[in-house]
Amino acid sequence: QVTLVESGGGLVQAGGSLRLSCLANRKIFNEFTMAWHRQAPGKERELVATITSGSSTNYADSVKGRFTVSRDKAKNTVYLQMNSLKPGDTAVYYCEGQGYWGQGTQVTVSS
């Protein structure tokens, strides 16, 4: 069974930082492009960042310069470092790869 498990969400004040982790249970995910998405209440899901197997990255304009996606293949883990957080970043954050999704982790940024 393929699983992705996110962790690291929580409540933080505006301007603070969080690091999300996405642990895959199979090494095959190291060969995939992985993505972080988010969905805020009442809003459509938004693609936040992607990272290829070769660690090339792309970001939504809304997070460029504040978020950094990375991966550690030895740990089958993808990270999302989020700095200078804003209340508008409040959402459930999901890890996704090859159509497989994690359960999501809540990020709440207070003003």
Kindly list the characteristics that best describe this protein:
single chain; 111 residues; mainly beta; seven-stranded mixed sheet; four-stranded antiparallel sheet; 11 strands; 0% helix; globular
Description:
The chain has 111 residues and is mainly β. 0% of the residues lie in helices and 51% in strands. It is built from no helices and eleven strands. The chain has strands at 4-7, 10-13, 18-24, 34-39, 46-51, 57-59, 67-72, 77-82, 91-97, 100-101, 105-110. The strands form two sheets. Strands 2, 4, 5, 6, 9, 10 and 11 form a seven-stranded mixed sheet that branches. It has a four-stranded antiparallel sheet with strand order 1-3-8-7, with no helix packed on it. A hairpin with a 5-residue loop joins strand 5 (46-51) and strand 6. The termini are far apart. The model has no long low-confidence stretch (mean pLDDT 96).
Number of helices: 0
- The low-confidence runs, each spanning 5 or more residues with pLDDT under 50, are none
Largest sheet: 7 strands, mixed
Strand-residue proportion: over 45%
Helix content: under 10%
Order of helices and strands: EEEEEEEEEEE
Number of DSSP strand runs: 11
Overall mean pLDDT: 96
CA distance, first residue to last residue: 40 Å
Radius of gyration: 13 Å
Globally, the shape reads: globular
Draw up the topology in text.
Blueprint: E1 4-7, E2 10-13, E3 18-24, E4 34-39, E5 46-51, E6 57-59, E7 67-72, E8 77-82, E9 91-97, E10 100-101, E11 105-110
Parallel strand pairs: 2-11
Antiparallel strand pairs: 1-3, 3-8, 4-5, 4-9, 5-6, 7-8, 9-10, 9-11
